[in-house]
Fold this sequence. Notes:
mainly alpha, 3 helices
Amino acid sequence: MTADLIPFLSGPISVAISVGILMVTGLFVSFFVTDRIILSGIKQEKKLVEKTEEEIKHETTILLDMSEKIDHMQSEIEDLEKLMKKEKL
């Protein structure tokens, strides 16, 4: 309604701008929120507020273990790269 008070923003231009803004915000919502909801539904994950403290601790342990394994793999890859460089010389 405020845009209608400005002469060059009245009528079809106001509607076009409003539709554009609604489409952009809808796109952001669907991209950032909906995808997460759909993926968590497919994986049958619980919301964080629905999880027990024990489940959260278990997931944290799993993530830390995976992080340690990745760090170990990264160091092994670096060692292999160093070995390959030495063999090329």
